[in-house]
Specification:
It is a single chain. This protein is α/β, with parallel strands linked by helices and about 140 residues long. It has a single domain, classed as 3-Layer(aba) Sandwich (Rossmann fold). Helices cover about 45% and strands about 10% of the residues. It has six helices and five strands, in the order E-H-E-H-H-E-H-H-E-H-E.
Length: about 140
Amino acid sequence: MRYMVDTNVFSRIVDGRLRRASIPLGAEFVVTPIQVSELQATASAKRIAELANEFGSWDPDTIPAESAWWDTMKWGTFRWGDDSCAPAIKADLDALRVHKNNAKDAQIIEAALKNGLPLLSCEGKVCVVAEKWGVKAIRL
């Protein structure tokens, strides 16, 4: 089975707060360029290297984001279209929590939704919103 993986999963494993054994066996993993950019956005070169090592060990498939959000996306890393639900997903996240990554989390949920992928996440409120939108969310 294929799973969309939220960025926080990689961070928690590197921090020792989540065991790799918690991840479904035999799974294949999918990310968007959003997760890649989040992993590279840390200030510490050592931390970037640790995250890159963990991320690389998963060998995830990278798919484009389903919509453009100009403050979170680089040109060419998203699909063109007028049917984005990311702003509405972000509104649902904003109603539950104020967080600087809500736009990015909304796009990750949207990518899981539109690609029929369950979402692996360590954030309960992200899982609640994903489920509201019909995405099977597995909180780790």
